[in-house]
């Protein structure tokens, strides 16, 4: 496996759309890797269990591989899917979110970034509170990307400041890693409390996710991640707990904006 | 100002009771510093604006200094106050919290540690979820102290995991930096959302605070702290916000356990 592919497969801070996009473009241009594709598919599926769009893409790729032809068609099909879904999603988001000027968000989602960029182009000025997203601080990545836009003001805050900041915004707006068949949304840890705080403070809570994120599954199980990412400390009766994802009940969601 | 005193005055991670206790013991034993006392009082009051017990103690000390005598009596008086209030508070806490076996808490409070130690001695086994308390990770200090006790299980978690963890405990239990005349509680950032999540999930929310923490003030103003404590990054349209304390409305508090 080449260096670039290793980097994609071990990415712990990007959202699923960004990872999928990187993977797609890499495999598309490295078709000489084709004998390794089954192995790459297996490893990547294991790494991104919570990312519905990646699972779908790889399942679809497996089908095309079985036919031993048409991989060219597969890549072209997905190029179109990605382009179309983003255009549709941005148009819908613009319509639904046009009346809001300030948002709070968590983690680093490329879909969210594209939507905010779109809003930013059509509005005078927007303000975004970005949660730092412990333990891996993906919020910083999104904050940096957003800071390249003009007419935008970004507040980078800790998760401890969440309640204080929900008070100050018009709405919450998050991406999604997967949307269950129940309508519940799987996203980065901290999303559930953001939704609960929005309910408590009467603020709308929006999710942006293209149709590729919709799953047939009705359940979600949490994987325990390395505790050292939070704190390197060993003690007999002390456990450092590290989960990346959690479920946000559909009743807490104002609307899932999709393509 | 000696090294030890400098350390006390610049402490950003201990709770108010611990800082006050350190300050008291240091000044009591360093009475040769007496000519510096007015200066020390002024500086310390400025440093710990949100800590009601420290403000009270220093105001009282100023009165004794004006009389130019009786400092011996002052220190003895406070030795007794500290001893008595802790005994009373622990007894009340034991009675009120005896039916609970698992708690979630935030930040590092010595009062809380003493209460948990007391509960730990009288109960078979208790479990504590300790929030890491960004940006300065005081939760780690409390977790380490607690891990020295036996029959206790500690889970160190990020603030992003708060909602997920409130589900798993019997009650929330926090210390306080100050209790306003309105009954609202001032405590470390993250306390408000912990209280709101407890309300949402029907979990009792307790505060432990001795009578020294009760203030005559009805208002609270937030001080902005150095952004570098959260993230060292400069960008034109990006603001890193850092507040240490916030107000928890009395309606969200099940009971303030005091002496």
Distance between the termini of chain A: 34 Å
Number of DSSP helices of chain A?
9
Strand arrangement within the widest β-sheet of chain A reads: 3-2-1-4-7-10
Q: How much β-strand is present in the residues of chain A? A: 15-25%
Describe the structure.
Two copies of one chain form a homodimer. With 259 residues, chain A is of the alpha/beta class. Chain A folds into two domains: 3-83; 99-257, Rossmann fold (3-Layer(aba) Sandwich). Chain A has helices spanning 3-9, 16-29, 37-47, 52-66, 71-97, 110-122, 138-146, 162-166, 191-200; strands spanning 102-106, 126-131, 152-157, 171-174, 178-179, 185-188, 205-208, 238-240, 245-248, 255-257. In chain A, strands 3-2-1-4-7-10 form a six-stranded parallel sheet. Chain A is globular, with a radius of gyration of 19 Å. The mean pLDDT of chain A is 93. At the A-B interface, helix 7, strand 3, helix 8, helix 9 and strand 8 of A face helix 7, strand 3, helix 8, helix 9 and strand 8 of B. Strand 8 (238-240) of chain A pairs parallel with strand 3 (152-157) of chain B, so a sheet runs across the interface.
């Amino acid at each position: 496996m080449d260096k670039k592919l290793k980097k994609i497969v071990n990415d712990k801070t990007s959202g699923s759309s960004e990872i999928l996009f990187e993977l797609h473009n890499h495999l598309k241009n490295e078709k000489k890797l084709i004998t390794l594709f089954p192995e790459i598919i297996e490893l990547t599926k294991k790494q991104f269990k919570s990312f519905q769009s990646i699972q779908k893409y790889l399942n679809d790729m497996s089908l095309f591989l079985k036919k031993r032809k048409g991989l060219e068609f597969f890549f072209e099909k997905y190029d179109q899917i990605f382009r179309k879904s983003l255009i549709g999603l941005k148009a819908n988001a613009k319509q639904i979110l046009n009346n809001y000027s300030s948002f709070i968000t968590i983690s680093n989602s490329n879909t969210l970034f594209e939507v905010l960029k779109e809003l930013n182009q059509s509005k005078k000025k927007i303000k975004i509170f970005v949660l730092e997203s412990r333990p891996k601080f993906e919020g910083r990545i999104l904050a940096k990307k957003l800071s390249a836009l003009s007419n935008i003001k970004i507040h980078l805050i800790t998760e401890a400041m969440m309640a204080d900041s929900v008070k100050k915004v018009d709405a919450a707006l998050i991406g999604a890693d997967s949307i269950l068949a129940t309508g519940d949304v799987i996203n980065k840890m901290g999303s559930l409390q953001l939704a609960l705080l929005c309910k408590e403070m009467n603020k709308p809570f929006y999710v942006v996710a293209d149709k590729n994120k919709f799953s047939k599954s009705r359940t979600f199980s949490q994987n325990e991640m390395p505790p050292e990412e939070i704190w390197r400390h060993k003690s007999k009766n002390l456990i450092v707990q590290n989960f990346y994802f959690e479920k946000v009940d559909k009743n807490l969601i104002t609307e899932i904006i999709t393509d």
